[in-house]
Design a protein that fits this description.
The chain is of the alpha/beta class and 507 residues long. It is built from 17 helices and 15 strands. It folds into 2 domains: 294 residues, Rossmann fold, CATH 3.40.50.1860; 199 residues, Rossmann fold (3-Layer(aba) Sandwich). α2 packs across α12. The longest helix has 18 residues.
Length: 507
């Protein structure tokens, strides 16, 4: 979108929850930010930093998955940097910008809030993400008692999270309107839908699969957007849409203990991923040959040595999560009458591009899979050229246009030296929080809280080696090397950090 439209808003008080005149609830966190000068979250928008052009671009996600979106921005080159016209010139388009990235790791995964009826709490987290990027406060470490007040404010915000876009985009835009601040906000869903349909001819048949978090699928955000754009674009072919909620995939990428654990060697209590006994995400023993799970190095946990005899089976590796969900998707298509071949797979979660190689590998295996009779089971359901849609590149395109149209393109900053990275951790100074043995919010506490209880559940601190694991860093180095270098530059040389992130691993 090219900037935000200013909206006239009126409200009335209803049981301490505010509503817009057209019925949409406003959360109390908005009152704290805009009106309560004594609140930790208050921002005086009348004194917002200016000129906007020189400020950073804010990017946030529920975890580190959004770094794949940031990496698309970091590597984006589709325009001439001198004329700003569409013509790649070999110079990165955002090289003279600076970024501030926020991973709300403490509250992730966002995709589960809808399942437990906590949409309002999710929206509150999203508004708090905006507040951090728009504000100036951060803590130098989890044990810091007093926040610093010198973080730069931002001139644009990229919601690098599909679930946050689906559930919180409209609320965040309304909140910004109320603040009086006019800056571009870019979400991932519209951009991805447009990019996906560009691979279809107007009269072409085919299927689109949305592979996303359970919460994003439940929102129907992609489905509604795709259907609207199919209608608007006058596509007359039989384009079918299949949804697959990737329960546990994002958690596996971010090493959430309830879903995966590199030190775990046997099935354990508290596991929440697909299993033989999980009614919603059941591993089907009849499909073990199709799943082709990797059992090496405890990547699959079983209570017996022979997989066929397992009575307890737990996934313990990100690739095995991909195997489970892609087989589930193809089984869903196989059991659908007249299903069209899969031509495009939208990675509707920013964590999933980290597993692009695994996704392509498993799709290839399934296309070539034969049953005991020698017949191809899924080949007719998988196009010979499946387009894997990473929404990030389309987000980069929209961001560039928005900055250009609003005269916000910067020519003075240095992306490599001035970008900053922050992550949320539980606020142990808050006696209300409940932690597990890993120092994270317990599942019941995380999803048992309610909106409109304004308190500091978390502290936002710089990336360092205490909150980013070595295994995660290796994944960054391999899959997003240029963004990894920005993280290294910030963590090793920026005075905001109190620890060195990478010295123990590579220096």
């Amino acid at each position: 979108m090219n900037g935000l439209l200013r909206t006239c808003i009126t409200f009335i008080t209803v049981s301490s929850v505010f509503k817009f005149s057209y019925g949409q609830e406003r959360l109390l966190i908005e009152e704290a930010i805009v009106k309560d000068k004594n609140s930790f979250y208050h921002i005086d928008f009348a004194k917002y930093s200016s000129p906007l052009k020189g400020l950073p671009i804010g990017v946030f996600d529920s975890g580190t998955g959004g770094l794949t979106v940031l990496d698309a921005l970091v590597n984006f080159d589709q325009n001439d940097n001198k004329t700003n016209k569409k013509n790649a010139d070999g110079i990165l388009d955002f090289s003279t910008e600076k970024f501030i990235y926020l991973a709300d790791q403490a509250n992730m995964p966002y995709g589960n809030y809808n399942a437990v009826g906590k949409d309002d709490l999710l929206k509150e987290h999203i508004i708090k993400d905006f507040q951090f990027l728009l504000g100036t406060k951060y803590y130098t470490s989890p044990i810091s008692k007093v926040p610093q007040d010198n973080k730069q404010q931002v001139k644009a915000i990229v919601i690098a999270c599909n679930t946050a876009t689906a559930y919180g985009y409209n609320d965040a835009v309304l909140f910004l309107n109320r603040s009086g601040l006019k800056i571009p906000v870019i979400g991932v869903i519209n951009a991805a839908a447009n990019g996906t349909l560009s691979f279809f001819d107007k009269e072409e048949d085919g299927s689109i699969a949305v592979f996303a978090t359970v919460g994003t699928i439940a929102s129907k955000g992609y489905e509604r957007t795709l259907l609207a754009q199919i209608d608007k674009g006058n596509y007359s072919g039989n384009i079918q849409i299949f949804n697959q909620g990737g329960h546990g995939v994002a958690e596996a990428v971010d090493e959430e203990a309830d879903y995966i654990g590199s030190a775990i060697v046997a099935p354990r209590d508290g596991y929440r991923g697909p299993s033989l006994s999980n009614d919603n995400y059941k591993i089907d023993k009849a499909l073990l040959d199709v799943y082709n799970f990797n059992f090496d190095k405890n990547k699959m946990l079983c209570d017996t040595e022979d997989a066929e005899d397992c009575t307890v089976m737990q996934l313990n590796d990100a690739e095995n999560y991909i195997r489970y969900h892609l087989v589930s998707l193809l089984e869903k298509m196989r059991n659908t009458k007249d299903a069209q071949p899969l031509k495009a797979l939208i990675l509707g979660c920013t964590h999933y591009p980290y597993l692009m190689d695994e996704i392509n590998q498993v799709l290839g295996e399934l296309r070539d899979y034969k049953d005991e009779k020698g017949d191809y089971v899924y080949q007719h359901l998988i196009h010979k050229n499946v387009h894997i849609i990473d929404p990030s590149i389309y987000v980069a395109q929209e961001l560039y246009v928005a900055l250009k149209d609003n005269d916000l393109l910067n020519t003075e900053a240095d992306m490599n030296k001035q970008s900053e990275f922050f992550i949320s951790v539980p606020n142990k100074m808050n006696s209300d929080i409940v932690l597990d043995e890993h120092g994270r919010f317990t599942y019941d506490y995380k999803y048992g809280r309610s909106a409109n209880n304004i308190q500091e559940y978390i502290k936002v601190v710089p990336f360092d080696k205490t909150n980013i694991s070595g295994e995660t860093l290796l994944r960054f180095e391999k899959s997003i090397p240029n963004t990894y270098q920005l993280i290294k530059n910030f963590s090793n040389y920026n005075p905001k950090t109190t620890d060195v992130l990478l010295d123990d691993r590579i220096n």
